[in-house]
Amino acid sequence: MPGPRILYVTDLGYEAKGRRYCDEDILFSSRLRADFTVALCHPADAAGLMGDFDGVVVRNSGPVIHYRKQYDAFRERAAADGVRVYNPLNGRGDMAGKQYLVELSAAGLPVIPTVDRAEDLGRLPDADEYVVKLKDGADSIGMRFVPRDGLADLADSEALRSGGPGDVLVQPRIPFVYEVSFYFVDHDFQYALHAPDPDRRWRLVPYEVSAADLDFARKFIDWNTLDHGIQRVDACRAPDGELLLVELEDLNPFLSLELVDEATREAFIARTADSLRALLSS
User: Fold this and answer.
1) pLDDT: is 67 or 53 the higher one?
2) pTM above 0.70?
């Protein structure tokens, strides 16, 4: 008998720097066919098609900023019709924009210091440069660097409206040692990869996780509200050795499955299938 019908949302034509979305999603969707009936569609078409399926899996669908109206329509219809979406749409990480970085920073969690108000720029530590990011950005879209003497001009800009949160985040540019990503299904850790060269974010190699590393990553997985789904915790190792959160990707994290060994890859896909079945039966 055919398994539950899954609409697998992906943009196979999206060109991402250092990654091939299409290869990963061809592999992932083909493996899921062992347990589910799977059809692929572009994210702009998901709202109109999902009514014929038992659930929707959002994978490498590209930055939402490229199809904002269609994505908002998808979320609204999924909520109205009770469609089961994987990942569920109540995530508090990048799925909801990057405002959470401001909130986590203000709460004193191990996050790169982040503000979004002109009057809070003075709370940032001194740095030679500062990073300005769009709250709804992804894949470095709209990201720019501002020298220390440019903060005054930034404070007067429309992007940081005085008296209220702006449309951008501001962070110090930290000379980190390396970046590392921790991959989870539900609340279960699967594997970690890191980029030894800070200038080559997607030149990743396997990373041996310490107990302290895992405690750090779990802190943010536990903070999020997802009972089911794939999450990637991205962090950087600061010069003093501390790990700092860069982002919590809970919408469509790229998994770099081609860089892990076969046993790890197959275990990850099998665990995801179990998680998806649990969501569909909930």
Assistant:
1) 53
2) yes
